[in-house]
Amino acid sequence: MNFLNIKLGGIVKDFIYQLSIPNSFLVLFTIGYFLDFNLNKDELKALGIGMFVKFLPGIILFLLLAFLFDTSQLIVKIIAIGSILPTPMVAVVYSNERRLNPNLASVFITMSIIIGVVLMSIVMLKW
């Protein structure tokens, strides 16, 4: 829409804004509904491996971008921060829909939010 220079009218903007208001509450409610920290040994192992697989490539990409490119460019910052973002809430919905383990997915999302916020804070403070 930006490339085609399409501008939304006030009514459309207001309608989309009204749809977005309950979004944060619904995401947090859904995660909290499935959140259960009573994980068995195999689930804890899967959680640790998942966190490692999720954040290690992001951290490596972030460091490569920081050393190879000019970090004053906005696009480099966006890609670098995007590589360490938390897992989206849709993982809980997907795991519930596929009859996987929504409790593990909820804990995974919660942990990735905590780790992601810490990493993004470090990045923003150092840049």
From TrEMBL:
Residue spans crossing the bilayer: 15-35, 47-68, 74-94, 106-125
Keyword Membrane: yes
Entry keyword set: Membrane, Transmembrane, Transmembrane helix, Transport
Official protein name in the record: Auxin efflux carrier
